[in-house]
Amino acid sequence: MNFNQYDQTIMSKSVWNKIIIFFLFFAFAKGNAQILEPVKWTSKIEKKSGNNAVLIFDGTIEKDWHMYSQFTPDGGPLALEIAFKNQKGNYTLVGKAKEGKTRTAFNDVFGVNETFFEGKAHIEQEITIINPNLKTVDVEFDFQVCKEVCINSNKKFSIAIPSTFKMDAVASVAEVKKDETKVEGLAVDTVKPTIEPAKTETAKAAVADASAEEDIPGPAPARSLWSIFFIAFISGFAALLTPCVFPMIPMTVSFFTKQSKSRAKGIRNAIFYGLSIIAIYVILGLIVTKIFGADALNALSTDVWFNLIFFIILIIFATSFLGAFEIMLPNSWGNKVDQQADRGGIIGILFMALALAIVSFSCTGPIVGTLLVEAASNGGIAPVIGMLGFSLALALPFMLFAMFPGWLNSLPKSGGWLNTVKVVLGFLELALAFKFLSNADLVLQLHLLEREVFIAIWIAIFAALTLYLFGKITLPHDSPLQHISVGRLYLGLLTLVFTVYLIPGLWGAPLKLISAFPPPPQYSESPFGVGGSANSGGSAESIKGLPDGAELGPHGIMVFHDYEDGLAYAKSINKPIMLDFTGYACVNCRKMENNVWSEPTILPILKNDVVLISLYVDDKRELPKEEQFVTKSGDKIITVGDKWTDFMISKYKTNTQPLYIITDLEGKNLNTSKPTISYVNADEYLHWLKEGIGNFK
User: Fold this and answer.
1) What is the DSSP letter of 549?
2) Alpha-carbon distance 681 to 252, whole Å?
3) Do the strands 91-99 and 81-84 form a parallel or antiparallel pair, or are they unpaired?
4) Which parts pass through the membrane (predicted)?
5) Per-residue pLDDT, 339
6) Is residue 388 a contact partner of residue 278, using CB atoms and an 8 Å limit?
7) Residue 126 pLDDT > 50, yes or no?
């Protein structure tokens, strides 16, 4: 090969290398561009009658993603917000936008029942057109969609009015103005108020995606029907051991065995008696579902008045169980039912079962009421499943002892222990009551029942229960106690252990065993616990030693919420920056902070080796007018959250949260294997942290 051929070969290779690098660059750029759109929208308008039309919006949601409904309560993930941009003088809204099928589940991070779409989102809004020359209806959706990460999205619709729509005569000017006034009032409800700067983080992070069924967190499904059945079955067994029900077992079984002409007939009658008990309670569950609808109580479960009323009801039930008074249905009901029971035969047995339900109401009523509300919060047929489990536990002993009468000899004698069971249930009802009061306080953001107060109340209740079980406290219906039984001793030790377990919660312990009951750690006088040395809501002015623009964030980590402030401080102390793109309503962000940042191998690094800058993409505070701008793509940057969202997308080509980046003082990524990282486990996060910090010069 001569030199000319060699030069041509080198040049050819050089050209090909450049071409390959060129394509690899774009392939890499495309691979790292994560501008996700998990929801694809279509819209249309349909004529209804007169000047009324229906706007229809259909969203197809990618698998494993979920989009939050407009009915997700404040304090949880971001609810869907619908804004009608050209409404005034053109059309009025008829009621609030209606939604298709949604699902509701308890969110253990924010402490609310969140409502969301899966697979498909269907939304309809009826309007009355008052401007016959209207050409389009302009609507804007702001919504949050989550999987392993969360995305705050915006979708604009401009729906053309078909020329085939023939409008009736326009209403009088006075009527139009009157309608507009009403509609403007409705429209305000569809938009969340601007978050006050001083309260933003506390309000969003404190009010309490439900517990995940797998390692990747997302909104947890509502409690499964099997778990509802199991809890109800245990509750039915507890009701069975109360003084209203237990003594009736030998009486009822003896009746069937003596009155029946043969043992086989006695067994058949007892089985029918048990099935009648089940039927009565299942019918009660059906009635609740039918009257309130499959999901109505679900929505009620986050209503302030509902929670307050149920708190009062549970306090009354608990007071009754503790022996202050008896809750009884009218005696006339029991007398009439007893008369029917004397008729004998199938009808008589059915009325005997009804008599049991009425006579035992003072013991079973509080348990049934609590079960119905808890089951109804799951929607669907959960109340029916709950009543099936409860009644099955109640009915089984009557059927089994009728089949095997000899077992009656081994049945414990009725005595003071039955009242003990009732009192224990009273203490449990009392503790549960404060969960409903806490729900109301969380929704109203009154901060009257913060985490420390709630835990202190539970400590007092279970400490009193422990003293009662050890015989140090007696109540009105208790029998004289010469000694305590072994079973009562064990139960007392169990409640003592639980009481001791609760105490560290005052000092910030997570109390994972009861995480669904007390307010979340952020909703407290001090997120670091009673006597804690720091305050997560502190500012540079209130906490000595913090630089301007900094405050103490999760676990006492110093954090900046403005990029320029954080950058200036990082330069002054020559430390790398960890950017944290997050959101007040980002569930997985909170889970990373709670479960990963708190690790003893990670927390010191975040406190000492990096400057943390947390930028909230859902911060609704408006930027000063001079800082507002329009992007090249035409998006208006109006709020602080808009600014950080644009920064994230333009700089890092993604729109998901949480997102973590370690940079040097010039803004260059320090991680080579993974320039950015999202929701990961603690080991992977630690490795990523060490790599980035190790590359800082």
Assistant:
1) T
2) 58
3) unpaired
4) 225-249, 270-292, 304-325, 346-368, 380-404, 416-434, 454-475, 487-507
5) 61
6) yes
7) yes
- Residues 144, 550: Cα–Cα separation, whole Å: 28
Yes or no: say if 106 and 224 are a contact pair by the CB < 8 Å rule: no
Backbone angles phi, psi at 658, to 5 degrees: -75, 155
Give the three-state DSSP class for 122: strand
Cα 461 to Cα 467: distance, rounded to the nearest angstrom: 10
Q: Minimum mean pLDDT among 143-147, 158-162, 322-326: which range? A: 322-326
pLDDT computed for residue 624 by the predictor: 92
Indicate if the pLDDT at residue 692 is higher than 50: yes
> What is the spatial distance between Cα 428 and Cα 517, in angstroms, rounded to a whole number?
13
**Angle made by CA atoms 566, 567, 573, in degrees to the nearest 5:** 90
Angle at 498 between CA 493 and CA 502, to 5 degrees: 145
Q: Write out 297-360 in H/E/C secondary structure.
A: HHHHCCCHHHHHHHHHHHHHHHHHHCCCCCCCCCHHHHHHHHHHHCCCHHHHHHHHHHHHHHHC
Structure tokens at 113: 């029942």
Query: Given this model, what pLDDT does residue 176 score?
Result: 43
Q: State how far the Cα of 596 lies from the Cα of 686, in Å rounded to an integer.
A: 9
Could you read off the pLDDT of 434-479 as tens digits, one per residue?
Answer: 988 887 887 676 888 888 999 999 999 999 999 999 999 988 888 7
332: Cβ contacts below 8 Å, ≥ 6 apart: none
Confidence of residue 568 (pLDDT cuts 50, 70, 90): very high
Contact between 207 and 523 (Cβ < 8 Å)? yes
Mean pLDDT of the chain: 77
Q: What average pLDDT does range 321-343 have in this prediction?
A: 65
Task: Please report the DSSP string for 464-524 in residue order.
Answer: HHHHHHTTSS--TTPPP-SS--HHHHHHHHHHHHHHHHHGGGGGT---GGGTTSSPPTTSS
Q: Supply the pLDDT for residue 172.
A: 40
Beta bridge partners of 558: 552
Tokens read off for 290: 């039918």
Does residue 445 contact residue 207 with C-beta atoms inside 8 Å? yes
Q: Report which of 273, 287, 468 is spatially closest to residue 368, judged by C-alpha positions.
A: 287
- Distance CA(577)–CA(580), nearest Å, equals 10
Interval 74-86 mean pLDDT: 84
Q: Which amino acid is at 192?
A: K
pLDDT at 28: 42
pLDDT for 210: 34
- pLDDT at position 206: 33
**The pLDDT of residue 544:** 53
User: Which amino acid is residue 323, in one-letter code?
Assistant: G
Poorest-confidence range of 71-75, 77-81, 196-200, 519-523? 196-200
pLDDT, average across residues 358-362: 71
- Contact predicate 696/578, CB 8 Å: no
CB contact at 8 A, 46 and 56: yes
103-107 and 81-84 beta bridge pairing = unpaired
Give yes or no for a contact between 78 and 618, defined as CB atoms under 8 angstroms apart: yes
Nearest to 450 by CA among 527, 515, 531, 510: 527
What does residue 554 show for φ and ψ, rounded to 5 degrees?
-55, 135
What amino acid is encoded at 24 in this protein?
L
- Predicted TM-score (pTM) of the model is 0.49
In terms of Cα–Cα distance, which of 69, 100, 99, 83 is closest to 183?
Answer: 83
Our measurement of the distance from residue 469's CA atom to the centroid of its chain's CA atoms, rounded to an integer in Å, reads 35
CA gap 412, 93 in Å, rounded: 66
**Range with lowest mean pLDDT among 208-217, 571-580, 641-650, 658-667:** 208-217
- With H, G, I as helix, E, B as strand and everything else as coil, classify residue 555: helix
Q: Across-strand partners of 151?
A: 145
Residue bearing tokens 């608990």 = 318
Contact 528, 498 (CB under 8 A): no
Q: Per the structure block, which two tokens stand in for 538? A: 């502190």
Pairing of strands 66-68, 120-129: unpaired
Buried b (16+ CB within 10 A) or exposed e, 27-55: eeeeeeebebebbebebebeeeeebbbeb
